[in-house]
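During the no-cost extension, the postdoctoral fellow (Dr. R.K.) reprocessed legacy sequence entries with the updated structure-token encoder. One reprocessed record is reproduced below for audit purposes.
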Amino acid sequence: MTARSPRLSRLRRVVPEGRATRPVEARGARPRRRGAQPKVVALGGGMGLSASLAALRRITGDLTAVVTVADDGGSSGRLRDELGVLPPGDLRKALAALCGDDDWGQTWARVIQHRFQSKGDLHEHAVGNLLIVALWEQLGDHVQALDLVGRLLGAHGRVLPMSAVPLELQALVKGHDPDRPEDVETVRGQATVALTPGEVQSVHVVPHDPPAVPEAVEAVRDADWVVLGPGSWFSSVIPHLLVPELLDALTETKARRVLSLNLAPQPGETDGFSPQRHLEVLGRHAPKLALDVVLADQAAVPDRDSLTDAAKRFGAAVELAPVARPDGTPRHDPELLAAAYDRIFRMHGRIGPWR
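Re-encoded structure tokens follow.
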């Protein structure tokens, strides 16, 4: 990373201010006492994490997103290859999801998500990706730059990368070559793994022991609730368990842990997976991980008993709730998901509304 600008280096590292400190209440949620909000950390990447953040910002103003940094496709992949930076795309999506519903927030959400259309080098680059990378080069500090973008957007929370170095995702895939259905091959790159034919057996990252971002580890250890998922299971959810310091924090934290399951299997990556199989592969990658609650849409669970048995192996209860959009698309409805999280936080809290 390039040397930081002397002027910008004087900027203090701060959590986003202003609108970011005022939670937006979920529809039907009871007003919170000042100081009674839970500290929530959400882990993931891509559209799955965005769904959680859009819901969680409605029920707490103390929200941190910890985002995977293995993307190697599209605008992020090009910037990563050309400049050697962390892939900014999933970080940008998380910031957009934390933008408020007022004109300021929605305008900035559209701006940072905007992609240029041209016949030149800017084609398909996202404005937010360029902004984030420019601040990384100016400040020389990933976290300080993301905090500054969050302040500009009025984000209702903080966004952190899970690792300080860009990661390569690698998967062992059975039947990647249709002509050799029993062979297991190594598939490299998040963009390739996400769409791979065959059955993903396991994933790992390169480097094998990547350094975690200290602020991300601290956030997990200090949280009241940690939310993992939904999202691309092998390329956005499980990678958080492959960063040793982050996995230690997840297993040792006193926070309660919620696993949010997807609404449907993902073509390629988890094609044909049942809800309980998602839990089984999670357990193979992190045998010591305990959970408190597994959240699933009631319409996406054909075999409740099998899911309950799989959750018990993590020490978790199963909560079924309608969290999908009413139009039938396999996407989470932010208000319904917010209501489900709010109920879980209240019903499964330790002392008072939270700890």
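The chain has three domains: 1-25+60-163, 168-206, 223-349. The CA atoms of residues 134 and 145 lie 9 Å apart. The remaining legacy entries will be reprocessed before the final report is submitted.
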